[in-house]
Amino acid sequence: MRIILCCSLGMSSSIFVRVLRKEIKERNLDYTVASIGMSELSKYIEKADFVLLAPQVKYAFKDISKMSKGYNIPTVLINEKDYGIMNVTNVLKNIKDEYNF
Question: C-alpha angle 18/99/24, rounded to 5°?
Answer without folding.
Answer: 25
